[in-house]
């Protein structure tokens, strides 16, 4: 019997050994794939187990965390949610993250290795650091002015500090409260569905994710191309463009919003927004020259990040002469984000050099130690300083005597350009009202702010639909706030 | 390590040591480890030592001390590892259940478990004190099997709980009689096989290398098989069915040494399991979940319980998250009972799990050790049976929750929440201590060897064949001393309970 007892014992211990081998399989070999399974709640529990770091505007948090006591413990809350939604985006337990919440997630959620006191600290201790803070470049007062100015109308505002590329305001309207999406309750699902279905598309960040035909504001780019390519050598000299102007290759004539555009100079054409002169100049510069200049301003660049991705502003790479003529006045397939047009104004304001726009000034640990600081970086040299000087003069003319008078600020040099873009089949849709501008205090070495405003349904379709009437006052309000010394 | 312990020949014991001091020291360690775990849970969860940590330690220590005194009094030669292992496993079980209680404040299981553990230790003490000779049990073989059958049949009359009819509910208390039935069955099998093993071993035909048993002794085997199938079908309890059948096959093999039984057993178990797996929806669901634990995720229904259990183990990794820092509560239903091992795996890691497996392995090995050291067939078979119960149960439960075999609803010995289970396991340990104590006890009159060996032994049929005698002598300790019961008999004297059996 002894032998059989031994065999039975061996069998029993073999079974226990099999358990051990299987435990190694599950806990070591398969651990990684099981930990990463989408059905595994542990990563989410860990992620929401600590309060998320805050996003700050002007030194004050615009976000917060709420202890729900549920399994996913901390929920995001937003102070002034709709105002800052185009900056922060949302952080939802159900739908993930968007915009800054997404781009800076590592710092905000505490997983960024740079937050740890030592390299590999988090891996070693199997912990995460308290969520860090993200300090934005947004100027609170400018943001509020832009949001107030749009007043619920569809549109967007982007404002940049030309010398540095700091984004001072980024507003999209109508907006939404991202706090509605924070949790994981059925109400969140319902809010998500409602917001996505809404005809006004409140979750669309129109400032960086929507492109519009830039209309006459694009004439600044065309003028830069004409000057750079020496098609125009003296902006004050009369051109040889006839009025009515027949679009090359067609029998269509191009209308002008004002009289006096026949053989008008470049300065006059910018001041009064002559379609004929600018379309003609675009054709004379040619596709290659127009593409090169538009590209230097940021068109056709799909890699721009602020740090959220910015939609590509488009200038077609292959066009016939008539299409080029229309594209040169911001029609046809030419589209731009509001941020892109603010960059156009900023390039002019900064002497032709375009700083890369950015939204995050720096990130810190919860205690305030700097983790990363965004440096000023040059994006591209959009044009020669001489060209920029000429364009400055023209934009000042346009603001002071031409179409942009409603953007003027006492004691401040303001340059601007209006735009009223057609859209829809046969121009049936409501035009967009555009205004791009920059402002420089007398005595200041350079302009302190460049801004682009687009309003989608100015003064409720049908009325006076112009950039000068609807968009310029908003731009003025933003610039007034941006010119004030920054609040501490 | 444990394998060596099981297979090494028993050491020469010229003067067996009692080693109760070792047991006491190990008990202190076991209690301290449990109290440390309890404290650690509190520190990890709320940053404070649980206010009742001292009371918990004192309670567990008191239980351990009483059990130790009982062993010291009545089974002074028992192996010193058995009791500390049981106390440590029970203590860790309480820690794990207390830890899971923190996640479900409305449903606290640890206090009840502590009450059941106390009852278990009380029964342990009673068994050790009252049962002076394990061979007494042999006389109650048929009473055992009848009670076992009754215990197994009664729950069928009660409503099913979570798909299985294995509970009796009375006055808010639920009770799982199948747990007790397994001890009773082990006693019956040991007694039956001790009496009939030669008939089973030496009849039948040989076909090739396989020795087939004769048809007329096949009856009881088929009967047991039918019982386990009935348990499976009527109670929908795959685990218990597997346990009963595995227990019987192992004991049958040890008693007869016939591999034919193993073949027959495997065939019967295989066909029964296959039939159940295809026909019975409850069992089929378990098998399907085992084949692909993540199918429900792909189907969009969220992770199955088994998948959650696998997530738990995986999340623990090698070193674990630390007590109180895991999320095994995601398993949901039965996290404190059938799936308690997942909490150990997640929070103590592979290291802690290995330690637990080693403890179980030691317990099983000590059972087999007692079986090897004992001299009477009934005692040997009972020890083997009890060890096999532990081994099979650990394998079936741990294998189930780690995806090695299909899930079955059984409790991890000592760890899992469940009163009947804890009480039963304490009785098993009490019996093992009794058997181990008898096996290791000194035999003061080696001179009597010849005399007593010839005396009629209630465990052996009259006129045993020569082969059995040879086997007996092949036992490593069998040469110099008489059979184990001899010592027992002379020690307990005519007043002992064994005297009645002898007087026959």
Verbal overview:
The complex is a heterodimer of chains A (488) and B (504). Helices cover 37% and strands 17% of the residues of chain A. Chain A has 488 residues and is an alpha+beta fold. Chain A has two domains: 42-135 and 175-202, Penicillin-binding protein 2a (Domain 2) (Alpha-Beta Complex), CATH 3.90.1310.10; 208-483, DD-peptidase/beta-lactamase superfamily (Beta-lactamase). Chain A is elongated, with a radius of gyration of 28 Å. Chain B has a domain at 446-502. With 504 residues, chain B is mainly alpha-helical.
Give a short overview.
Chain B: It is found in: Membrane. Chain B: It is a multi-pass membrane protein. Chain A is an alpha+beta fold and 488 residues long.
Features:
heterodimer, A: 488 residues, alpha+beta, Penicillin-binding protein 2a (Domain 2), Beta-lactamase, 5-stranded mixed beta sheet, 37% helix, 17% strand, B: 504 residues, mainly alpha, two-stranded antiparallel ribbon, 2% strand, globular, disordered N terminus, PCN-bd_Tpept (chain A), penicillin binding (chain A), Beta-lactam/transpept (chain A), signal (chain A)
Can you lay out the helices and strands and say which pair or pack?
The complex is a heterodimer of chains A (488) and B (504).
Chain A: H1 2-29, H2 31-35, H3 42-47, E1 55-57, E2 60-61, E3 63-67, E4 74-78, H4 81-88, E5 91-92, E6 96-97, H5 99-103, H6 105-109, H7 121-125, E7 133-136, H8 140-150, E8 155-160, E9 167-173, H9 186-197, H10 206-209, H11 219-228, E10 245-246, E11 253-254, H12 266-272, H13 275-297, H14 321-327, H15 338-349, E12 353-355, E13 360-364, E14 370-373, E15 378-381, H16 385-400, E16 412-421, E17 432-441, E18 449-455, H17 467-483
Parallel strand pairs in A: 1-7
Antiparallel strand pairs in A: 1-2, 3-4, 5-6, 7-13, 8-9, 8-18, 10-11, 12-15, 13-14, 16-17, 17-18
Chain B: H1 2-7, H2 20-46, H3 53-74, H4 82-101, H5 110-130, H6 141-153, E1 168-170, E2 173-175, H7 177-202, E3 205-207, E4 210-212, H8 215-235, H9 238-256, H10 259-279, H11 281-291, H12 295-298, H13 305-316, H14 340-373, H15 377-401, H16 419-440, H17 449-454, H18 466-474, H19 484-492, H20 498-502
Antiparallel strand pairs in B: 1-2, 3-4
Organism (chain A): Streptomyces pacificus
Domain Penicillin-binding protein transpeptidase (chain A): 155-479
GO biological process, one term (chain A): cell wall organization
